What we know:
It contains 11 helices and 10 strands. The protein has helices at 2-15, 23-34, 65-72, 76-86, 94-104, 125-133, 137-153, 188-194, 199-203, 212-220, 244-251, and strands spanning 39-41, 44-52, 55-62, 107-114, 117-123, 157-160, 163-170, 174-181, 224-230, 238-242. The strands form 2 sheets. It has a 5-stranded mixed beta sheet with strand order 1-2-3-4-5. A 5-stranded mixed beta sheet has the order 6-7-8-9-10. Helix 5 runs antiparallel to helix 6 (125-133) and helix 7 (137-153) packs across helix 10 (212-220). It is globular, with a radius of gyration of 20 Å. The model is unreliable at 17-21 (pLDDT under 50).
Amino acid sequence: MKALYSFIALALVLALGSCDVKRSQLKRDLAQANAQCPMQYPYGSITSITLDGDDVVYNVVFNDDETYELFKNIPDDEIKQMMLLSLNTQGSNISEIIDMMRQYDVNLLYKFSHGNDSFSVKITIPDVEQRNIQSSTDSKAAMLDTFLAAYNRMLPEEIEEGMFITEVLEDDNAITYVVEIDPELYDMDTIEEAGDALKPSVAESFNGPDSREFIELLIDLNLNLAYRLQYPDNSHPFELVFTPTELKHYIGR
Length: 253
């Protein structure tokens, strides 16, 4: 799910990579970005990036019905928040995006489609400015709630053969991924014996474009990240917990 938002946000950085105030420069930048299309990603592809009036238009085609329908049913505000959050991992930041949008005086219009069905989400300069001022703890907590609500709609998700994230829980101290494992493929006693030795391999994904913004958010909110592994009947649970200090270590912050 996080990868989905990140691949959509990536197009913004590609398209608005220059800060020339002339609209003609924007057209040249977009032509260069459009020449890289289609851009293939696990969930689909960006087929074109064009200018239509005051809108930079991204045409995004999904690979399958299930992912498209899940994404379509997410409220627009949640999609916007997640896409804007993802921008921080794409080699840019929100203040730069605001500057570029102001100089070009453009909105960002995402057209999502699968087969004959489609829907659109527009991000305006006020949308981006609102995201930029959301730096307080309360605002970051709201961003986390938005992410979790959207992500839980996408579950269950198979992350490895016989290993499914079924739910993401939130409390005052931690965000917990509930992971069901197939007892025919995994032995919980072996996992428990490995314990903290599993952390480096699990943490390899933390610096990826589909994870780092989420890890940064947990650090800023001083929350642990936990993985609760258990069998489908909820038996034999084991938790692997990363503290904020450990999260900082693994992302080099």
